[in-house]
Amino acid sequence: MRQLAGAVSVVSVGEGAHRTGFTATSVTSLSIDPPSLLVSLNRNSASWPIVQRYRRFTVNILSSAHRQIAETFAGRRGLRGAERYADARWQQHGQAPALIDALAVIECDLDEAIERHSHAILIGRVLSVSHRTGVDPLVYWQGDYRRLDTDADDQ
Ligand SMILES: Cc1cc2nc3c(=O)[nH]c(=O)nc-3n(C[C@H](O)[C@H](O)[C@H](O)COP(=O)(O)O)c2cc1C
Questions:
Q1: Where is the Flavin reductase like domain (predicted)?
Q2: Nearest atom, ligand 1, residue 70 CA
Q3: Exposure of 22 by Cβ count < 10 A (0-12 exposed, 13-18 middle, 19+ buried)?
Q4: Which of 2, 5, 73, 98 has the CB geometry, 3.0–4.6 Å to 105, for a possible disulfide?
């Protein structure tokens, strides 16, 4: 899977003191009608009980300026739960926090959580979408963050 380049998102869950969230490359589109998506979440994560409790989550698609936020929500900076939201770029939006300058913010209702192996496959029904243009995505490939080479021509 190290060879599979993926867009990096932070999935935010919960509210107030119960906020937490995780960095994810497993966000995938499921259907357009109705608008829905999938996220695969490790059931050892602190986010799993919060997702089950609130049955809502928000996908924040990160830009190339968000490496530090990705590291924070991957648990690599020692911050847990609501501490991960100390960055001023977060605002409460609906039920879960939203990253103000994210490439896109997709608020979802939890339709279903399918428990398989170590993970839960979250099926999210999209409630609202906002997005920005002219910003590059953050990409993860071979164990490191990358920028998309937007100058590459398609030869
Ligand atoms: C680039 C990247 C992608 C990740 N993708 C996922 C993912 O799709 N699903 C998941 O459960 N964990 C994923 N992780 C790991 C979680 O972000 C990490 O285990 C989580 O934040 C730990 O949560 P906790 O400290 O709140 O328990 C990823 C980590 C990184 C660095």
A1: 1-147
A2: 31
A3: buried
A4: 98
Task: Quote the pLDDT of residue 137.
Answer: 97
Sequence ranges of the domains in the chain:
6-147
Strand order in the sheet with 138-141: 6-7, 138-141, 144-147
CATH architecture, domain defined by 6-147? Roll (2.30)
Q: Which residue's CA is the nearest one to ligand 1's atom 15?
A: 74
The pocket around ligand 1, CB under 6 angstroms, is made up of: 8, 20, 22-26, 40-42, 45-47, 73-75, 140
Over 80: is that where the pLDDT of 6 sits?
A: yes
Q: For the chain, what percent of residues have pLDDT higher than 70?
A: 97
Q: What is the dihedral angle through the alpha carbons of 60, 65, 68, 70, rounded to the nearest 10 degrees?
A: 30
Q: What is the pLDDT of residues 55-107, one digit of tens each?
A: 999 999 999 999 999 999 999 999 999 999 998 799 987 778 999 999 999 99
φ and ψ at residue 82, rounded to 5 degrees: -65, -20
